[in-house]
Amino acid sequence: MKRGIALAGAMGLVVILLTLAISRLGRMIEPVIHPVPNTAAAPVILDAGHGGEDGGAVSITGVPESQINLEIVQKLRDILALCGADPVLLREEDISLHDAGASTLREKKRSDLQNRVAAVEAVDGATLISIHQNTYPSSKYHGAQVFYAPTEGSQALAEHVQAALRDQLQPDNERAAKKIPDSVYLMNHITCPAILVECGFLTNPGEEAMLRDQGYQRQLAMVLAGAWLSGQERGEADLQPAENLLQ
Length: 247
Description:
- The chain has helices at 2-25, 65-82, 105-121, 154-168, 205-212, 214-234; strands at 44-48, 88-89, 127-134, 145-148, 178-179, 194-201.
- By secondary structure, the chain is an alpha/beta fold.
- It has one domain: Aminopeptidase (3-Layer(aba) Sandwich), CATH 3.40.630.
- Mean pLDDT is 84; it is low at 1-12 and 14-40.
């Protein structure tokens, strides 16, 4: 099984590197891509935070967090699919997942979160990656930070992903992976390994511009995909920073 995962990962990374190289050259050529067989050891669930009436935070240029979250998740889905995984997306468009009977915004948000929990719990042996954006009253703060659920395997994965983000994308990022606060409903009501990635600060002008950029979103997605795939290959007991895909 591990040999199959390694082969699928290697083949997928070749495709990613080829695509990135073509993008950097600015050429309008699409390579012929042969799908890699689905040999991932465990399913991965991708959660684009917020959605619909709940746009989350709003960036300094007026872009809702929910939109940026979804764009990153869609890119992460595509990269993982190239590498042989079959990600499950909790939402694929700008919608809330609340029940039809919910009327007030508060009821819709609670129903949305409960339905996300139910969707995650319905997938056996899954890992959850939830994508969000950060804010702060001061514009000086920047950098991605990974939070982990109080479930087995979550802390190791969060530390692995945090190291990958630092080593491959944000060398000046001194943030450490942290346990998720008790107030975050989704991450505290599931039983599978789970991380929440705050990709950056929408209140920092430079980082906000990057987070809106399709190329930077793709780089973020590549780092997250590489970290998760390498974690699958090595197992939770020996997680190390993922191979650098951006060189």
